[in-house]
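User: Hey, my collaborator sent me this sequence without any context and asked if I could get a structure. I don't really work with proteins. Can you help?
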Amino acid sequence: MGKWKILLFLLGMGLVGCIGGADEVEQGSDVTVVWPATVPPSATAVPSVTAVPLASATTAATLTRPLPPTHTPQPSSTPLPTNTAVPTNPPLPPTAVPVIPTNTAVPPTAAPVIPTNTAVPATPLPTIIPSATPIPIPPTEPPPLSGNLLPNGSFEEGHYNQWGVPELQLPNGWRLEWDEGATGYGNESWDVWVRPETRVLPDYQLPPSEHGIFIYDGTHTVKIFKGYGAISVRLLSDLTLSPGTYRMTINIYPDLYTDFVGGQKVWASDPASGEVRFIISGGSGGTGWIRPAFGQRNTMTHDFTITEAQGVTVGLGIKGPFAIVNNGWVMDAWSLEKISN
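Assistant: No problem. I've predicted the 3D structure and written it out in structure-token form, which is a compact way to encode the shape of the chain:
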């Protein structure tokens, strides 16, 4: 019996040690004892739970049941949601301008449309009062029957030096005549005719500002001049004409000035300082002396008739009787056309 008492004593002591190793709780409270935090290595680890005081036996009874899950899973019979298909062409949001239904009347515009069955008032025509005297219609001048019959009329077809004299540069197809001796206008030393100088000038030998003044067709012009000298010259061409009526046209610029002040030419004040005349040998002849305007282009025409085919000399006579600073004459674009048979 003594051994059994010792064994029971030892077992009791071990039970008291196990209870002492657990967490202490307030005496007199109902508690649920959980497994100690330390678990032997061979056992499966169990999460530690802190002892919570129970308010009553009912609470203790409740804690002995399994805790409900933290969230409620959906029933397995509920199908999982699927992705909703997005239309490939989603409808556009309405624009700022509303669409008018087809059965809605459109308000009329500011300009009403006139129905086709409505008569449009006719525009009244002006009243024409017949004139007692008919208005004459000027006759339309017929085109010339020929082109330019003058050889090298615009002086674009080369030049030469007459008799080899450099100061007598003339367009091909033309020749020059001049007078020498007393002018008959006075007895001074300068009252004599002298030989002029002539040039066939291309545009690049003229200042750009003078191109439009002296060149009227192409790129060349002819200048006949003499500084401080009186001149009387004739620029002539020889050709054969058939019977008919002809019109000769010349363009000439009398470059006659007596002084040069402040970069400006002072034009000759005496109208007799320069005169010209048409020369036509044979037929009805040429003209008398004509006084052109100085310092500007003059376009002149002369009609004449040839009664039978013959050789004819045509050209222009030029007279500058005073020995002024510049006795110059510039000419271009001459023509001779047949206007009737």
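In plain terms: The longest strand covers residues 244-261. You can pass these tokens on to your collaborator as they are.
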